């Protein structure tokens, strides 16, 4: 299964495509937008990492609880 891309990444790729094909101008507004999308992309990545850590912690807690109840 291919790695899913975040919405900011997809938007950056779409803007880069249109920039390459001269559909949009490379101006200050685009530069600001790309900078903001980069910041948002980093934030999304951090939230994803936190979600994965929380899932792992929850799974480990469930395993410990099951192990404890099995030992009774």
Structure report:
This protein has 72 residues and is an all-alpha fold. It has a domain at 45-72. The protein contains two helices and no strands.
| Rg over CA atoms | 21 Å
Distance between the termini: 41 Å
What is the mean pLDDT? 95
Number of strands: 0
Task: Tally the helices.
Answer: 2
H-E string: HH
- Strand fraction equals under 5%
Range of helix content: over 70%
Report the structural category.
mainly alpha
Shape: rod-shaped
Low-confidence stretches: none
Biggest sheet details: none
Could you give a quick summary of the protein structure above?
With 72 residues, the chain is mostly helical.
Write the layout of secondary structure elements.
Layout: H1 7-20, H2 28-71
Helix pairs in contact: 1-2
């Amino acid at each position: 299964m291919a790695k899913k891309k975040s919405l900011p990444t997809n938007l950056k790729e779409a803007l880069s495509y249109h920039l390459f094909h001269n559909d949009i101008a490379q101006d200050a507004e685009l530069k600001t937008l790309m900078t903001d999308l980069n910041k948002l992309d980093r934030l999304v990545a951090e939230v994803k990492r936190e979600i994965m850590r929380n899932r792992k912690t929850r799974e480990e807690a469930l395993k410990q609880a099951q192990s404890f109840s099995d030992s009774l």
